[in-house]
Design goal:
By secondary structure, this protein is an alpha+beta fold. It is built from six helices and eight strands, in the order βββββαααβββααα. A hairpin with a 4-residue loop joins strand 2 and strand 3.
């Protein structure tokens, strides 16, 4: 038996009345579990397994697929705009596409929780997501350090082999923009678009070029 705090990242119907769920837990990494009978209207699990709501769970079993024995929401889900909701789906999809170990999940859990709370609070969606992506790149071992001897006006792009590099192209992101972004300074729409381009290249590398379905919804 183990108990932990978690967020439900994904769930799908299983057999007649059960569900298969994948949880991001605070102390046990990503956990796969079967919620037996959770789709039954009289189940104690009915309505408890919702994404984006913190939950306390109890699991049993020694195999890779645990059995969910209890779940209780520890937060509430407030209505939010479509864009914010899809952005939360995007965060979940990113975590599912990355090869995360238990240690990484323990570091990610509080930042994920904070990101979801910010998106629910109707903050600036693009900026919140870029912060989350930057954090994930560091957890995955890609420290995005600015190039040596670069200056504020230099344009920066991401190279999968070399990291952040100075470019002569026009589609780069200025070093000043990245510095302001990391310092939580206000950035304008043009700077944000540049950060979007930069981080899109980083994320594509993190997920090995896999299609991110929620991006299609964001469009």
């Amino acid at each position: 038996m183990l108990s932990d705090a978690c967020y439900i990242l994904h769930k799908r119907a299983y057999k007649d009345s059960s569900e298969l769920i994948k949880c991001l837990t605070a102390h046990h990494g990503l956990v796969d579990a079967v919620a037996k009978g959770s789709r039954n209207p009289k189940s104690k699990l009915k309505g408890q397994l919702q994404p984006f709501i913190p939950c306390a769970i109890t699991l049993s079993g020694k195999s890779g697929l645990k059995t969910l024995t209890n779940a209780e929401q520890t937060g509430i889900n407030a209505p939010c705009a479509y864009l914010n909701h899809v952005s939360m789906l995007y965060c979940n999809e990113l975590l599912l596409l990355l090869n995360l170990d238990q240690e990484a999940c323990e570091v990610i859990y509080p930042v994920y929780a904070q990101t979801i709370a910010q998106l629910k609070a109707k903050g600036q969606v693009s900026l919140i997501l870029r912060k989350f992506e930057w954090f994930l790149s560091g957890v995955q071992g890609y420290e995005l350090s600015l190039p040596n001897q670069s200056v504020a006006s230099d344009l920066i792009t991401f190279d999968p082999s070399l990291g952040l590099q100075v470019t002569r192209g026009k589609q780069g992101c200025s070093q000043q923009t990245i510095t302001d972004f990391l310092a939580n300074q206000t950035i304008d729409n043009e700077q944000l678009r540049a950060m979007n381009r930069l981080m899109r290249a980083v994320v594509n590398h993190l997920v090995n070029g896999k299609t991110i379905q929620s991006r299609l919804l964001l469009k």
